[in-house]
Amino acid sequence: MGREARRDDHLRRQALRRPERGPAPAPDLPRAAHPDDPQLDLVPALLPALRRARRVHQVRGERAGREDAPRRAPLVGPGPRERARREPHAEPVLAGRGPAPAGRAGSGANRTGGGTVGAVLYGRDTETAALADRLARAREGRGSALVVRGEAGIGKSSLVAAAAETAADFTVLRCTGVESEHSWSFAGLQALLLPLAGHLEAVPEHHACVLSRTLGLSPAPDKAAPPGDLRFTVGLAALSLLGAAAAKRPVLCIVDDAHWLDPDSAAVLLFIAKRLTAEPVAMLLTVREGYAPPFPTPGLDEMPLGPLDDAAAGALLSDRLGTLPLDARGRVLRSAEGNPLALLELPAAEAETRLAADWTGARSTTTRLKQVFGDRIGGLPETTRTLLLLIAADDTADTALVLDAAAKLGAQLTDLAPAEADDLVRFQGGRFTFGHPLIRSAAYQGAPVYRRLEAHRVLADVMEPDDHRRPFHLAAAATGPDEAIAAALEASAECASTCGGLGVEYATFERAAAFTPEGPERGRRLLRAAEAAAAAGHGPKAWELYGHITRSTEDRAILARATLVAAGVAAWNNDVRGSYRLYMEAADHYTAAQPEAAGYPLFRAVELAWQTGDFSRAEVAAEHAERLRIDHSPWVRDLATATAGLNRSCAVSVADGVAALRRLIDIHVGFGDAVSAEDRAMVAWWQTLLGDIAAAEHTAATAVRLARQTGAAGALPRLLMMNAVTEFHRGRWKDAEALAENLIDLAVEIGQLIGTVKARAYVLAPIAALRGDRERVAELADTMRELAPADTAVKIDVAEGLLDFSLGRNEEALDRLMAGFDSTGPADIIQFVPDTVEAAVRAGEPDRVTALFAWYTQWAEATGETHSAALVARLRGLLAPDDAAGAHFERAAELHRDADGFPFETARTDLLLGEWLRRARRVTEAKSRLRSAAAVFERLGAEPWTERARRELRAAGDAGPVEAAPDLAGRLTPQELQVVRLAAAGLSNREIGEQLYLSPRTAGYHLYKAYPKLGVASRTELAKLGL
């Protein structure tokens, strides 16, 4: 029987056999699986796919010499055969797990292995109760995730294993992060979700396709995964799969040693963990603190697991190890410092060394435990140490592979007996496992360097040439650059790219570059790594790789692309000036290598010059494009013209600036569906600058849907920003706030600092200011100043000026608002010109805004928008003598009616007109205008404006209550409001979930919470509300 046949037979037996002992069933047969569960019929049907995923995953091609062989699955990490029976290591008594009750299977003399089903935990009552509460909430459909953090041996795994033992009514899914699999795309996700493959038919077809490829169950595609952020596309598909499984019974996901997860799995699982609100799903993640990679979990609940108290530590020591001499017991307790694993391991060291003084020194418990394990390994025969080293070097613990490699080094399976007898290693579920990750570290790091290199070399030698692990073992065995190894690693990175594993892709390209000899290939591979890192949202890594590229190559084409990456990272971090400089550098590189390609960075440079208000820099970029005579030079020139014309520059008229911007909009709109989501965001911004709010609203909303469908998460913050701005203009403040909050959450998740600042500056803070909310404005301003760099172009002070204006502090308001218009880039705040002019009039200083009003008037006339003309007419009334003001206010009111859809600005015009009518003793007309204005202000929650309208009403002799239309939107949370809007538009829960990155069940949860608040009971009634 050949190796492939033996492995298939072994896989079949593995998948159909339950473990004989251990705290929990293996992942492919979840605890409490019912006989009629479709999962139980999967093994025979999936065997061919499992075999494909087990073997090397390449883009396309047939097995050598076999034309009828199936195409292989893409690189997604170790195959299901290697992972199907993986059980997490159990930290024995680590939470203070006690002995098994009489009559239950126990762990015998096992000092480092897991305890037994039903065993108690010492000193963890509070933590156990907290986990029980999580499971109870999941049973009720209120899912959540919890991160358990603590040092090695402190009891994290035992704590979550104990929780799993109480989850008899749950489907229990498990995966364990493994250091050696850190560079294999979606290895952890595959281990966790493969048992749910039978539920793929219950999720939307496109989600099933994404997951089939990610889990290695479908052949490799003919082309790479579509561009987009895999956290969102794969994450939403995985969330759908968990939701489908949870429809039958709750699901418990246990992710052990999450710090060793491959970055793609980690990103997807963190995405899921934040979106379990309405799912009957609980997720428990364990993370080691110290001596492990950092694993930040922003937005998730955490449970720090500290040492056992003295009483629990003493009880554990007594119950598990019996009586120790009093002095020895004291030394063990002091040295262990409450660490359960140390309490079990140190007594042996005490017996041999009496725990010398250095055991109680400054070294960490982890270091001490590694020494204990290292000493135990050091006392084993050399052939046993060889086998342990091989198992540690390839932690997939492929039995056939390890034994083949051992034979080349003069060892065999029987040589493992001493380590097995000492509970250092076991054979479970058809694979070798260490009793604890620290044993693996001790076995590997304790070996001399030459032995470690030899182990990796031999493992690579016995692997089949196309095994996806082989390049990594070759790399680990190398001591210097090697083009063959670099090429093999590059092929692995290409496979990761095929299935969309961007996190692993950049890491593998970087490693390939490290093994590349000096020359152009090193720069090229570093460039691929930098581009993949940026696409994966790892800005700091992309920036670091950019630095390596500039020091590694003089190839101008490579430097141009690398500089584009760096410019994008700088822009994300709100370093606008730095980003401009880098785009200009990229243009210089392209000028030397590929002149026609220089148009893109020059165009982006002008866009950034706009944001800083540095018109000279915009002109430099435009002139550069014109010198090159490239096809896109007119675009660059038009944007430079718009930059100057719309930002109060004397060099270009406002009319010319508006005309240039219209040309750019028409060009981009003319490309139709070919325009990317990122460019649509730019078009929406331009349309807003021209006052065409309806067009901007349509462009942004359409682009948001496109970005969500294609996974273009990087474009979403800017698109949501434009969407929120248009809602603000339209007087739908609750919607604007909901979009801005969504934008901030998303920008934080993908690392776009600039989005979090602008959402606060141009949406949340102005709304709070117009409502007169001092505390909210102060809080937002403080946050913006903390996040934004000192030279930011974002107008943080504008909201504080609006607050002053709303509260009647007109002098202070004028100073703050004029500071914004006198600085760079005033076009960004052109919507606040009417507030500034009115503040100047009320402060008795209209001369200060003469030039500003003239600029605004030219802009309004050039754009031709009715709404803008209405605002100009209102300002003319404010600046005119009182006897002439009424005609301007009445004209403004007529134009507002024609424009429609701007309730706040219409109400302000009605307020001014009502005040003038009262002064003109046209009281009846005044009351009508003032009541209309007061009702709008009250509905929006604009308290200062409501009070001003009521004051005028009282002066007109009307002291009656103002009946505002019910603010239905104000009754909902931001998330509920977004869901209700989409439901009212006819979208299903599934479609809503895809739009908002929620599961269908979570979308339904928010919808049905909103129904009683709105007084409706169905979608039909909801649509009639006209929200």
From TrEMBL:
Bias type Basic and acidic residues, positions: 1-21, 59-71, 80-90
Domain HTH luxR-type: start-end pairs: 965-1027
Xref: Pfam families: AAA_16, GerE
Region (Disordered) residue spans: 1-45, 57-112
Chain intervals with Low complexity compositional bias: 91-109
Database matches in SUPFAM superfamilies: C-terminal effector domain of the bipartite response regulators, P-loop containing nucleoside triphosphate hydrolases
GO cellular component entries: cytoplasm
Keywords on record: ATP-binding, Nucleotide-binding
GO molecular function: adenylate cyclase activity; ATP binding; DNA binding
GO BP terms in the entry: regulation of DNA-templated transcription
Protein name: Helix-turn-helix transcriptional regulator
